[in-house]
Automatic annotation (TrEMBL):
Listed name of the protein: Alpha-1,4 glucan phosphorylase
Organism per entry: Erythranthe guttata (Yellow monkey flower)
Function comment: Phosphorylase is an important allosteric enzyme in carbohydrate metabolism. Enzymes from different sources differ in their regulatory mechanisms and in their natural substrates. However, all known phosphorylases share catalytic and structural properties.
Origin superkingdom: Eukaryota
EC top class, as a word: transferase
Pfam families: Phosphorylase (PF00343)
Family to which the UniProt record says this protein belongs: Belongs to the glycogen phosphorylase family.
EC number: 2.4.1.1
Reactions it catalyzes: [(1->4)-alpha-D-glucosyl](n) + phosphate = [(1->4)-alpha-D-glucosyl](n-1) + alpha-D-glucose 1-phosphate
Cofactor(s) demanded: pyridoxal 5'-phosphate
GO terms classed as biological process: carbohydrate metabolic process
Residues recorded as bearing N6-(pyridoxal phosphate)lysine in the entry: K643
Molecular function GO terms recorded: glycogen phosphorylase activity
Keywords: Carbohydrate metabolism, Glycosyltransferase, Pyridoxal phosphate, Transferase
Amino acid sequence: MEVSALCNSHTVSSATSIALLTNHRKWEFSFNKQTPSFRSRSSFFIIKNVASKKQTQKQQQQEQGGALDALKPDSASIASSIKYHAEFTPSFSPELFELPKAYYATAQSVRDVLVANWNTTYDHYEKVDVKQAYYLSMEFLQGRALLNAIGNLELKGPYAEALKKLGHDLEDVAKQEPDAALGNGGLGRLASCFLDSMATLNYPAWGYGLRYRYGLFKQLITKDGQEEVAENWLEMGNPWEIIRNDISYPIKFYGEVVESSSGNGKKEWIGGENIVAVAYDVPIPGYKTKTTINLRLWSTKVNSEVFDLRAFNNGDHPKAYEAMKRAEKICYILYPGDESYEGKTLRLKQQYTLCSASLQDIVSRFERRCGELVNWENFPEKVAVQMNDTHPTLCIPELIRILVDVKGLSWNEAWAITQRTVAYTNHTVLPEALEKWSLDLLQELLPRHVEIIRLIDEELVSTIVEEYGTEDLDLLKEKLNEMRILDNIELPCAVLDLLVKSHEIPVENSVQTEEEDSESDEVAQIKRIHEYKRQLLNILGIVYRYKKMKEMSAEERKSKFVPRVCIFGGKAFATYVQAKRIVKFITDVGATVNHDPEIGDLLKVIFVPDYNVSVAEVLIPATELSQHISTAGMEASGTSNMKFAMKWGGLLFRKH
């Protein structure tokens, strides 16, 4: 297979085209719109000028001859591949070919195609030496991968036929796959959407995250409301991931900082606790393109010499593997409770592990591409690091630490490189979602980074003082506010007009479900449970509707009320007491309303447990009206409303 791209050194060319060839098919993706020049900090700006058309065609001919043979897109070849994996990569009983084994073997068969595409994709990117974007996120809410992958590869028909020959239905096989428990809400869903989109648009990009063993939690709904149990989604293994024991990086906590003998601002971080981050790669296929990018997940462990063999043989088993457990628990669950000091420490360890391992990997890849002569000034021209929300913000001091303490650059060089490399997007302005750490905890866990953060603070203040010629704190605050406003000075007036007009639209009148001819309205509010998302307001409205119904006769109820099914779904964080009370209230109201013989089918309240991507794929197409009634100013975007809008469902908003 062969990949070719044509780029301009200042813009993404209007004639950009990526052709993907195999012996059996030819896919071609092109887009013909002029893209404006990006600033130097843009995360997805490709600046490499590729060779002329003649040279590109010559490369295509050479690469085509050496390309890996792809799986033939016919049902017989696919069935043979599935049978091969069922026999030679056994994770189940070899005598039986039941649904769990059929899923695992099918996924392995698809992964073979993705790995071949992945290798060819990155061989091409390395040859043309393009700028690469690296997307760091604590969450990736992927859902199931099998149907998505074969759909993107346009192989759904052949796989369905192959499995039918082997005695199984594709849909039944796909249902055996658990949702990857790597995310929870819109933050993770957007992260996965970005990876899908970048692969589809043929952008050279990677994702970086953590490999959570138990996810957030599995939600159970009982008479007491929400209960949480570990979500053991890796119990039967993950056929999509590729463990990379050859790619691991040291991570340090605690310890102390001493001056380096080499000087130049370089410090040495010594002592403390040392663990190892090991890479797991998951291929992400683009839609109708053979471009396949990578999601690299980190798992944590310690080196074998840390195991205390003497203590183990003496019977002190907990002491023997104490260090192992401390390292492994970093990747146990997503968002561990942070009410305690230990919980806060664990969360900070998670975030630093993601940042440090990912940046060490990014720097290593950059050095390998440079060869013997590494030009660090070129780093921002080849690398863009995008931080998804505030969780990976330790990337900034960590990149400076690597450049200064490990690679020997000066502070000024490292600071300039970091400013041009790292970008940030936040998803909400809620105080609880903006990372804040006590100075004592940071000083204890990451002493070198506290020093760097202080230097960054001094750098920012001195820059503003130099620009405006004052050290008056009130004036500085005023100037910072002015700078924030002026950041949008080039925003087109048409966009501003659109923003103003959007507030004038009486959206609350845009949906009138009473005019529908269906037997009942399905009204959903499916998103994580939070006070600002106002599931409480929704359920109180249902209680009001129920009370009004009870005041009427049976004939009046049938004439004045359209049957309605009210659907709730979403998780409340395990330590968020008020949100869990809301879940309990919803289930209690449902227990009362659903069993009232006078109301019958005129009103039902349903709470769908363990809401995830797979559940959303069923609920969203079946729902007629989706409620988005979050408190004004609290919702950054609300990703679920985008999904409902795409299926032409009604959206109910509240005007403030």
